[in-house]
Amino acid sequence: MALAGAARAAVSLNAMSCAAGGSAKDLGAPSLAALPVHRLSSTAAHGVQLPAIRPMMAAAGHHAKSCKVQATVAAAPAASSAAVQEEGRVYNFAAGPACLPYNVLKEAQADLINWKGTGASVLEMSHRSKQFLSIIQKAEADLRELLAIPDNYKVLFLQGGATSQFSAIPLNLAGPEDAVDYVVTGSWGSKAVQEAGKYAKANLAATGKPGKFTDIPPQSEWKLTQGAKYLHICANETIQGVEFKEYPEVEGETVLVADMSSNFCSKPVDVSKFGLIYAGAQKNVGPSGVTIVIVREDLLGKAQPSTPVMLDYKIHSNNESLYNTPPCFSIYMTGLVFADLLKQGGLAAVAKKNEEKAQLLYDAIEGSDGFFKCPVAKPVRSLMNVPFTMRDPELEAEFLKEATAQGLIQLKGHRSVGGVRASIYNALPLAGIQKLVHLMKDFQAKHS
Ligand SMILES: Cc1ncc(COP(=O)(O)O)c(C=O)c1O
């Protein structure tokens, strides 16, 4: 049977019983009507056409005879980079949405039409089904294990991006007359403090702006407010490539709040030092659509009365992130990424790889005799986003063109700062950085 036929069978409500302990009807008929069969049968994750699934299934020793076959294609084996190249994949240095682990994409591809024998895709499941509950609960459990999140912290899977948290944080953690401190080390912190000013007395305790955000102002110069409800930092500024290597201590009732969007799960973090951590998934842990908030329980339930229901942490916490329809597929994908990170040995192992990757690139920049330059002060250079410029800025366009031609994509710096930026998140393989460094050396030799 052609796979498209299998897919048609797979979306039938009469498909086989559920491996996760439920039946297809638990998924809820209305949500199953959501996607037309021809869309499901012709396109898999990330626009990969269905024929691409066939060799993978054959390699896994399965035959596309029935929907049951699809159901039994579980996690794809770890792929060599040769296999990745075979599928025409490139090294994607995008800042976010960013590259995802190949294994995870393969697993999602295999699951797309028929998740664990339910006969339906995660894209079509009711968020109230026991299948989806098993997905979100496992995602949370795996994240708790990865970050060793203490029991007195809640984990929320929310929508609206990290940008919504810029408003939700002051609305939930402060009153309109309360002081809240911000140390701004780049573009995202700037946006956060601006938004906070609408809902609380936002104090710019320090800013790296005069130095063009190339360093973190020394803590001795921070003008913190006594009794501030919280101190907000951006753990890693994605655009400027400035990363906190150590987190500041706070005093009294003040809690530390961190935007970890672009270094979330890139290394171990002592969660107990924070009142709240938040991160959009689309850099290190999944596709866009879900934002993770980790918040200390005692901070909940004090939101300003005018707080929109969708921004009230207590409501989401009381409802286990299911107050309304959550971004189900994004949550499922982040769950696959968390499981993959655990399989890699957890965040200490991941951090080691990230250090090695970043070192290789920074060494290449430093060793270029000024041909390539990183403007960021060495002690705060990000392990995730590496911005650099060229001695001759006129060569940048040619460099980027050559990089793209070699399958090294999305290296253009953010439109606000220009230059080159290599985002080297967890899922960007070492081989991609080796290839970039090779190109940098070749390019320099050609133009010196
Ligand atoms: C550090 C940081 N914070 C916040 C944001 C905004 O995230 P979102 O687009 O999910 O609202 C981004 C986006 O790139 C970011 O890098």
Automatic annotation (TrEMBL):
Q: Which HAMAP family match?
A: SerC_aminotrans_5
Protein name per UniProt: Phosphoserine aminotransferase
Q: Which GO terms describe its biological process?
A: L-serine biosynthetic process
Q: Report one GO cellular component.
A: cytoplasm
Identify its protein family: Belongs to the class-V pyridoxal-phosphate-dependent aminotransferase family. SerC subfamily.
Substrates-to-products reaction catalysed: 4-(phosphooxy)-L-threonine + 2-oxoglutarate = (R)-3-hydroxy-2-oxo-4-phosphooxybutanoate + L-glutamate; O-phospho-L-serine + 2-oxoglutarate = 3-phosphooxypyruvate + L-glutamate
For this UniProt record, give its keywords in alphabetical order, as a comma-separated list: Amino-acid biosynthesis, Aminotransferase, Pyridoxal phosphate, Serine biosynthesis, Transferase
Q: Which residues form the Aminotransferase class V domain?
A: 90-436
Q: In which pathway does it act?
A: Amino-acid biosynthesis; L-serine biosynthesis; L-serine from 3-phospho-D-glycerate: step 2/3
Q: Give the cofactors, semicolon-separated.
A: pyridoxal 5'-phosphate
Q: A Pfam family in this protein?
A: Aminotran_5
GO molecular function annotations of the record: O-phospho-L-serine:2-oxoglutarate aminotransferase activity; pyridoxal phosphate binding
Per its UniProt entry, what is the enzyme's top EC class, as one word? Answer: transferase
Q: What is its EC number?
A: 2.6.1.52
CDD domains (alphabetical): PSAT_like
